[in-house]
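Notes from the 1:1 (GR / supervisor)

We went over the backlog. Supervisor wanted to see one worked example end to end before approving the batch request, so GR pasted a single chain during the call. The sequence is below; no edits were made to it. Supervisor asked that the structure be written out right there so they could see what the output format looks like.
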Amino acid sequence: MTTIDVQNIETESVTKHGLPGFVFADDAVYEQEKEKVFAQGWASIGVGQQIEKPGDILPVRMAGVSLIAIRAKDGSIGVFHNVCRHKSAPLVDEPCNKRTLVCPYHKWSFKLDGELMGAPRFYGNENKPISTEDKADKGLIPVRFAVWWDIIFVNVSGDAQPFEEFIQPLDELLSEYPKEGLQRVSSTDYSGEVNWKLAVDNFLDGYHVPFVHSQACSIESALGQEDLFLSDDIVGLRLANGASNKPAKTAKQIPHWPGLAEEKMGTQQWFGIFPNTLFFVDPVWVQTIVVKPTGAAKTDETLSIYVTSEEAASDEYTAERARLSDVLNEVNEQDIELLDKLQHTRTSKVADQGHLVQAWDQVNMSFHQMWLRKMQSK
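Structure output shown during the call:
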């Protein structure tokens, strides 16, 4: 079956109808995305509090790249390609805690900072340790990364704009929130038979929330939605009274952000940070979703939930945090169920006759245009 080249997709058509269905299922498109979207930009791979202790290691597979994030002995984070420098065998398959990394293939060993420690019988019959000189260029290959609001971002190509510039518009918008106090409640992994762009598009779709997630938002509250266009890579939505206009998630209120202005005590804001970072800020909790495509129609996600302070993370609120986690994961499960079905219908030819709605779909359209610009760039 012949597919349409992405270079032939017209911006005007995307404005009216969204991206054509084939881009959500085509293997050739997915192969192009690996380089043009995920390798060249700032993509997220996980969160720092998933690797809390020295020696914690988080392996991640995303868009054709296998990486590991490591908490070093001094508490710092490092990110490396998950490949041994001998014959590129993967070093780690599952989250774990180790003092050293040992390749399962030929037992080359590496320190947590990526330095090669040893390579047995490196000189064959001459049974002696590998020399400092021979070790020098055989450490793990580092990946450019940044940590923001506990989210670990990577730039695999190494040539994206400085992360501080990339994130600055959102950093400024959230400057009143004391993010240093974030305390993780839970991280949950999901897998869906769906294209990653549909998962991002769904998160940025405020229109569906009162209908699919009636436990989270009323239609009256959703009508107050404000679109946020922060940069060529960051869009979002705001409900000035999204938190205060819906039923309380818990019987006892988890503490709000310390020092947050009174007029923002009901404000909810959520953002898509292109390409794959989904980020929600509530007056009492924060949610991140790292979207990890593993195929044209296969996507993994990690949903992490935080409260805003040590007080909120104390034993006094154990039951409330558990209920919060249950509610937010229930919402994501509802979305996954819907998206698995949408993958079949949104990728059909007839889907190209759909119509975006002026009142609700401007943020979604903007995300589609972001993707198109990246894919059509030379």
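Supervisor's comment: The longest helix spans residues 318-346.
Batch request approved.
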